[in-house]
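Sharing a chain and its predicted structure for anyone who wants a worked example. Both blocks are below, sequence first, tokens second.
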Amino acid sequence: MQPALRICNITKRFGSLVANDDISLQVRAGEILALLGENGAGKSTLISILFGHYIADSGRIEVNGQPLKPGDPKAALAAGIGIVHQHFALADNLSVLDNVMLGTESLFSITTKKRAARAGLMLASEQFGLQIEPDALVGSLSVGQKQRVEILKALVRGAKILILDEPTAVLTPQESESLFATLRTLVAQGMSIISSVISSARCCA
């Protein structure tokens, strides 16, 4: 079976510093792959290359056998790649629903298309077991709930490959257990997940 994501010989340098050195790996549908390493090992750099924030000096990335355009987050999104950063990109003064719509709809559409967006959010929430109140202000949520919103944002946008950057670093042990349960649900439904993990932290097996 063809891998959902294939990374081939990726190298990235910042001046004399080699952040990624000839990295090759692959992940299939229904798999979780952990990028394990100390701080500064290059995990976040590789994730940034995958999502188009950085361009590798050499190597290539394929999604379902097709080349992924480098340095283009829109191309990554279109290919079904979603990312949840360690530091969430959410507006605390907006609702969960508005945050999910933000970046995918125009400001006018956020007002006129809320009914359809709410239905899509609730469908994803039910399908993947990510319970959330659409009208809750993000600023009132716990860290674990905010992470849930970020995951839902990626799923609503059609992500089939989910990348998590040190997802347990900001969570309590109880929130981490909840995240692991969520990830198991996602892979059971065919998602591919790549998660960077500090080597001293517990992995999401």
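Comments welcome. The radius of gyration is 17 Å.
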